[in-house]
Amino acid sequence: ILIILGVLAGVLLHVTKADHSKYVPKFTDKLFFYCLLPPIILESAYSLYDRYFFMNVISILIYAVVGTLINVALIGGSLFACSALKFFQNKVPFAEILLFATLISAVDPVAVLAIFQEIKVNKPLYFLVFGESLLNDAVVITVYNVVSVFTGPKDLNVVDILKAIVSFVIVSIGGFTFGCIMGAITSIITKYTKGVRVMEPLLVILLAYVAYCGAELFHFSGIISIIGCGLIQAEYARHNVSRKSYTATKYITQTLSSIADTIIFIFLGIVLIRDNHYWDTSFVLLTTIFCVVYRFAGVFLLTFLLNLSRKNEISIAHQVIMAYGGLRGAIAFSLCITMSDTVNHESISMFTTTTLVVILFTVFVLGSTTKPIVRCLRVKTQTTGTLDAFMEIHDKVLNESINGVESVTGQRSLNYWVLRAKRFNEIYVKRYLIRNHSATSKALKETYDKIFKEGMISKMTTSDFYNKMKSVQREMQMNEDYGAIDSIPNITIANGHANNGSKVHPSIVTRSESVEGNVFKRNGTANLTARVNTISRFKATLILQPEDLSPNTKRPPSPSNNSNIFFKRS
């Protein structure tokens, strides 16, 4: 849709014969790297924080780093060989071809995220593809900045390539370290912002931007830095800020990311319609073929090697979807537009035309056929919240059981070191980065939230919940403390009645004080909107009969004759 809107904007400027330089600012490298790129990467980094990402982080890193370098080498080598054999109209220097091969290897995480969220593929596959696409961009931009230094009249030699490899390693490690430090600083500062909640979203986003700019200032990778900062903020700082601040931060970054993507695709449409394109049929077709073929070859090769050591092998169906997820988009286009002046002008025009064709092909052809391919291969989609809840408990019990068996047998597998790292994090790290941290209480709270907010309670609709209020007189025992519910759309409580006609039992109306959100009051009328999946904010005991759950909710067999299901939170 963004591409179509950008094309329409370009057509409008072309038809009106308006000088777009008067209405649209010039797309420069500074505009892209310091204004448009940071919010896109930060929003993706926040989305990356999930246990399925960390469970597959080794595989994701191999796909992102090794796979990207393989694509760059194969595409660059193939295009240079074709140029040497005079398949193209003009001979292109190796340094320029390598620079183009680098930028055309950039996979767009926003496009991948949009398509895979619509399809609702299972989470392991989702984070394999999404994590690889995001880290792929980090690798591509880092390699691009390194290779661009060597473009010009001088030909690349072995020493230059070795320097580029060393520089890539240094800027990557340095950028990630700097980002983690800034994330830790964010967590420490937010420990003391309880009295100024309104500043928390601004503080978190600002420090993430400082992580990006600071890394660039020290000639490290800013994109890797902001990814590291975002992951640390999601792990620690989110526990220090209020729920409203966390929600505000999330939606602000999403909004800024969407605005940045929209601006980039508007420029893409203008360039597609207005610019004079240098068309080389052989170069365009061969580049498109190489991008698709080497993407599939790289995924299948690396997956074969990874499956030799993985307990849960990546299936052929998942490999096909991962290869299909190599969509090009905003990052590749932006890097091409901001290409260094040291590159030949005709080469830049040819690279721009080819990049636009590859983007349109991958987005409209590969992207539009992904959903039918998923159905054809019968790829599992995301499970229900209830099943996720029980899987959460099952995984914790199983991991601890495996750890116990390993302790008895004296063996040390990856699971042992993962649990040791988690315990070290809970006991020694979080106590300094999270306000009033208690390892036990935090673990219980996080597990509770995953089970009930994302599981059973989230499956109850608002109408189901309020229609059952009359029949659960003794099932919600409010204590003498105050309780509050955050907003629920479409349901308003007034004088014990909901606006849908159902009667609310007066026992839920209790004494209240000044708290966040709208609250019930014992006397008088109180209008309330609330969200069921934040029910854990009640200081109450909530008992639900099995029939109070939605009909589609599956439940395990009761261990006793008592059929009540208890959800207790104090």
Automatic annotation (TrEMBL):
Keyword Membrane: yes
Domain (Cation/H+ exchanger transmembrane) ranges: 2-375
UniProt cross-references to Pfam families, sorted A to Z: Na_H_Exchanger (PF00999)
Signal peptide start and end residues: 1-18
Major localisation: membrane
Keyword Transport among UniProt keywords: yes
Start-end of Polar residues biased regions: 560-570
Residue stretches spanning the membrane: 61-88, 94-116, 125-144, 164-189, 255-273, 285-308, 320-342, 348-368
Any GO CC annotation of this UniProt entry: plasma membrane
PANTHER family hit by this protein: NA(+)_H(+) EXCHANGER PROTEIN 7, SODIUM/HYDROGEN EXCHANGER
This protein's name: Sodium/hydrogen exchanger
Organism this protein belongs to: Leptotrombidium deliense
Lineage: Eukaryota, Metazoa, Ecdysozoa, Arthropoda, Chelicerata
